[in-house]
Specification:
The complex is a heterodimer. Chain A is α+β, with helices and mostly antiparallel strands. Chain A contains 13 helices and 22 strands. In chain A, helix 8 packs across helix 10. The radius of gyration of chain A is 24 Å and the shape is globular. Chain B has 9 helices and 2 strands. Classes of the chains: A alpha+beta, B mainly alpha.
């Protein structure tokens, strides 16, 4: 539906745009002036999207205040975004106000919504009710001057090498994020909705799985989400192939009763847990059997006391879930097969071009070995005569933001999609929902 | 002898009474709850697969996955520290005060879709009635492509050996109408966007030890979980065995 013509030229669009990639784990945000200056990763701030409360020092940390936190023990998180969608507006509003409006906001981020455009990204397949809530809060509570909401990963099409005003034609985006892993074929900046696939394995599930395994095998760590996330990021790796997975599993096996094996210290690590008195972060080092005997009281204590978490097959069995979700009973195909499921619903010509332009974004792609495993497994599924070209974004976490910022720095593109507050006041949220659903970033 | 029958009326209780009966052995209604009759099942024959899970195991797995996927712990509530921004409109206040979780919104979406699917059936019938003429046309359309194909395949293919022909490996060019139809498809619902289960011909499901994560070659006799050896079996029985949950 075209916007009403009566407002044409009456109020000029604001000069700056708040580009906000509102993730479940972190906000990626930055103010972009509407001139054609080429934005870069440095313009983007990554802010934890949570409100955390520590039972120990009885303090509450809102979003970026988390960097002041020294004691991450038993830290409890409240996250406004669930499964990638903004669900709890009470918490999200508090975080946005804290980060963008109040005196606590960072210097590069503070803005007056009445003089700012908002470009907000969302996950694909968002329930319509939640989209409506979001639109209403943006205009009625925050009163942004103008606003555009779209599926975030599609904006990666604007990350072309030359700062042109044309998106990349064909792009297959694998977004392996905190909540889940989504596969999004994008044609000229527009999402091919029928081929979007979602694999219910994301960083959150991996962290929780590691937490469960460590709690079962060693210490009760069910309250230590922050620590386990840190451990996951420090030690996990993806086995290069299924065969190598079996070999590694063999090498980390403790052996049978009466037939103990020595653990392979090239894989097994000891993670030195932080005590939050002298250190607030732990570190990993190769496994030392003497230390673990000491821990179990089989050998007298020597040296300073430290708490060790031995990590054997957890290191590679946890990220393995991305490739074999059935290992814990999730009835979904692994990532390479899921990509083929998505592509098989497309015409052959599109499928070929998509395979030649695969881009991986999202934090899980930073796990060592992820890209190699994905490429080699995908290669076996793709017909031999097809070209497979798969790459990871330079900064997989900020890449969507950068695409959005590049899009926002083209005033003519932005003018096309933005909806002004006056238009919203006149037509209401049902009209707005239809307008945003009508077209992609075009 | 007069025939006495209790007719159902508003006052009669729906709950059945109970009484002692002679134990006649195998009761098929209890199989799903507790499939312990493995010897009898073997004697009865019938299809048996190795990886069949009991209802109890399935619930345990579903609960575990839900636990792993959970975003916020409903038991722990963290209050918002400062009450700075007051809701500006009644509508905004309503949205801000929602205490619902994502599963409630997704259930809502499902329910609305189910409603929509029930409603438009008469409308679809109406459309079909209106669309008789286009349908007749579309039945006639297959002819032009049929006549067009010989031209396409005839021109380049004959001189070149099919081995070296690129034509066979190149996909047909993109149809513009098809592309536009693809781009115009509305978003799928959240539930419809999930990845399908792996293809049946793929590698079989792997089983891991419930305790240490090594291959789970042995089934726990009590609950069916997998363990790798005696040591882990003892640990499993003292902690996670479903027999006791």
């Amino acid at each position: 539906m075209p916007p009403k013509g009566s407002k044409k030229g009456s109020a000029s669009a604001p000069k700056q745009t708040l580009v906000l990639d509102n993730g479940a784990y972190t906000l990626k945000a930055g103010l972009v002036p509407s001139t054609s200056a080429n934005p870069s990763y440095d313009n983007c701030s990554v802010i934890p999207n949570c409100i955390a409360r520590s039972a120990r020092d009885k303090r509450t940390y809102v979003a970026s205040e988390l960097s002041n936190c020294k004691d991450f023990g038993e830290l409890v998180f409240r996250r406004p975004v669930e499964k990638g969608f903004i669900v709890n507006w009470e918490a999200q509003k508090a975080i946005w106000e804290h980060e963008f409006l109040e005196a606590s906001a960072g210097e590069g981020l503070r803005c007056n919504p009445k003089e700012t455009n908002l470009l907000l990204t969302e996950k694909p397949n968002c329930p319509k009710e939640l989209q409506k809530n979001c639109d209403e809060i943006v205009f009625e509570q925050f009163e942004f001057a103008a606003y555009y909401r779209c599926v975030g990963p599609t904006l990666n099409a604007w990350n072309t090498s030359s700062p042109s005003s044309l998106p990349q034609e064909c792009l297959l985006i694998i977004d392996t994020s905190y909540s889940d892993t989504t596969i999004l074929p994008v044609y000229s900046g527009q999402l091919l909705q029928s081929a979007v696939k979602r694999l219910n394995v994301g960083g959150k599930l991996l962290t929780n799985y590691l937490k469960e395994l460590s709690s079962l095998r060693h210490y009760n760590m069910l309250e230590e989400t922050y620590l386990l996330n840190e451990i996951k990021e420090a030690v996990s790796y993806v086995a290069p192939s299924t065969q190598q997975f079996c070999i590694d599993l063999e090498r980390t096996w403790k052996g049978r009763l009466g037939d103990k094996r020595t653990l392979d210290s090239s894989i097994v690590l000891d993670y030195v847990l932080p005590d939050y008195e002298h250190s607030s972060h732990g570190y990993a080092r190769p496994h030392d059997p003497a230390k673990s005997r000491m821990r179990r009281g089989l050998q007298p204590q020597q040296g300073p006391r430290e708490d060790l978490l031995p990590l054997g097959n957890e290191r590679f069995a946890v990220p393995e879930l991305l490739f074999n979700p059935t290992d814990i009973g999730i009835q979904e195909a692994g990532l390479p097969e899921a990509i083929m499921q998505s592509l098989n619903s497309l015409p052959e010509a599109l499928k070929v071009t998509m395979l030649a332009n695969v881009l991986v974004i999202g934090g899980n792609s930073l796990i060592p070995g992820f890209m190699e495993r994905l490429e080699s497994e995908l290669r076996t599924l793709v017909p031999a005569e097809y070209l497979l070209n798969i790459s990871r974004a330079d900064d997989p976490i900020k890449h969507t933001w950068l695409g959005a910022a590049r899009f926002a720095s083209h005033p003519d593109l932005l003018k096309h999609v933005l909806v002004k507050k006056t238009e919203y006041d006149e037509n209401g949220s049902a009209w707005l929902a239809r307008k945003f659903a009508g077209g992609g970033a075009k | 002898m007069p025939h006495v029958e209790v007719l159902p009326n508003a006052t009669s209780a729906a709950a059945p009474g109970w009484h002692y009966v002679v134990d006649t052995g195998f009761d098929p209604s209890k199989v799903a709850i507790n499939p312990k009759d493995r010897k009898r099942a073997a004697a009865r024959g019938g299809p048996r697969t190795d990886n069949e899970l009991s209802a109890r195991q399935q619930t345990a797995i579903a609960r575990r996955i839900a636990e792993l996927e959970r975003d916020n712990d409903p038991k722990q509530s963290i209050p918002i520290p400062s009450k700075s921004g007051i809701p500006k409109t009644p509508n905004a206040r309503k949205i801000i005060q929602y205490q619902r979780q994502i599963k409630h919104w997704l259930d809502d979406e499902e329910a609305q879709l189910a409603l929509l699917q029930q409603v438009p059936q008469p409308r679809a019938a109406h459309l079909r009635r209106v669309g008789t003429i286009p349908q007749a046309l579309s039945e006639a359309t297959p002819a032009p492509p049929g006549s067009a194909t010989p031209i396409l395949s005839g021109t380049p293919g004959e001189q070149i050996d099919p081995m070296f022909s690129i034509e066979s490996s190149m996909p047909p060019p993109l149809d513009k109408a098809e592309l536009e139809a693809l781009l115009a498809v509305p978003p799928l619902s959240f539930a419809a966007s999930h990845v399908a289960p792996p293809a049946p011909g793929g590698p079989p499901q792997r089983h891991f030890c419930d305790n240490c994560g090594y291959w789970g070659n042995i089934k726990c006799l009590k609950c069916g979980a997998r363990v790798c050896g005696l040591e882990c079996k003892d640990a499993h029985e003292s902690t996670r065995c479903l027999k006791w949950t």
